[in-house]
Amino acid sequence: MLIKEAVFLSSNTQLAACPPPTRPEYAFIGRSNVGKSSLLNMLTGRAGLAKTSSTPGKTQVINHFLINDEWYLVDLPGYGYARVSKSARADFGKMISAYLTRRENLTCVAVLLDSRHSPQAVDLAFMERLGQDGVPFVMIFTKADKQAHGRTHELVASYLRTMSETWDELPRHFVTSAETGLGREPVLDFIAEVNRQVATGTAGT
């Protein structure tokens, strides 16, 4: 997929205020230090599209971007919520839950996972909740450039083994690096594939 245009549309804390649900929508979420903004900038080829920060937890709203006038990319607040109050964590949780379970055009959620770490309980629990709610998702491993390829492969394999203990069918997964561009084409090709399925009415079949 060629990204010709990526336009910021809106930031919202209420589901009702989000853009009209008229296009396929792909939401990206992960723990607050997983490198989400850098990944989104890499995928779209727009260095400043998503705001990056040295302080984890920068995203605190639902950010919508329109890609190629065809589909929505959504930057969601991270879970883990570094350095925010208990009440703020509760508000984030409610906002994210409402979005994930009630956004009618949500096509797929990309759960971002740091490829340098072994399976984390908070990530596993989040994906388990998505499965229980029937929300389609894929796994995107980030920061693959931060360690040797063999180590990344080992840790990704560990994640998949852990997932296979409780999942009958594993979600698709991608290994990426915002620094080198690794995984960009596979992720965008996946989105293009699903968009075609949505257009022809074969998605999920």
> Using DSSP, what is the number of strands?
7
CATH architecture: 3-Layer(aba) Sandwich
* Unreliable residue runs: 53-57
> How many domains make up the coordinates?
1
Can you identify the CATH class?
Alpha Beta
What is the spatial order of strands in the main beta sheet? 1-3-4-2-5-6-7
User: What class do helices, strands and sheet pairing give?
Assistant: alpha/beta
Shape: globular
Structural key phrases:
single chain; alpha/beta; 5 helices; 35% helix; globular
Summarize the structure.
The chain is an alpha/beta fold. Helices cover 35% and strands 20% of the residues.
Molecular structure report:
The structure is a single chain. The chain is α/β, with parallel strands linked by helices and 205 residues long. It has a single domain, classed as P-loop containing nucleotide triphosphate hydrolases (Rossmann fold), CATH 3.40.50. Helices cover 35% and strands 20% of the residues. It has helices spanning 36-44, 86-102, 121-133, 149-164, 184-200; strands spanning 6-12, 25-30, 62-67, 71-75, 106-114, 137-142, 173-175. It has a seven-stranded mixed sheet, with helices on both faces. Strand 6, helix 4 (149-164) and strand 7 form a beta-alpha-beta unit. It starts with 5 loop residues before the first strand and ends in a 5-residue tail after the last helix. Mean pLDDT is 89; it is low at 53-57.
